[in-house]
Fold:
Amino acid sequence: QVQLVESGGGLVQAGGSLRLSCATSGRTSSLYSMAWFRQAPGNEREFVAAISWGGGSTYYADSVEGRFTMSKEHVKNTAYLQMNSLKPEDTAVYYCAAQGYYSVSAYDSASRYHFWGQGTQVTVSS
Structure:
């Protein structure tokens, strides 16, 4: 089992920045990848970013490319999402996800990930 806890959400003005953290615990020694998804009220859960845990390769949704950066810190078993130039349309609950074993699903598919956090609210005011 892997447990994920997100933190760092809050209220910011458009154009501002925010850094989300996802702390992991449990059986994390063989993680394949981690990702961030977001969901606004009435919308489907949307892929934001993913990272290969071993190699560090990153993948981003077109809507956040160039503004968001995902990274990892192995010593703390933590993943991060640095969000810059925030827009009101970025407002959502942001969820951290982890891939615990081999999957054929794509990096931007929720079905690839086996463990999920409870989410952290990000609100961007205009």
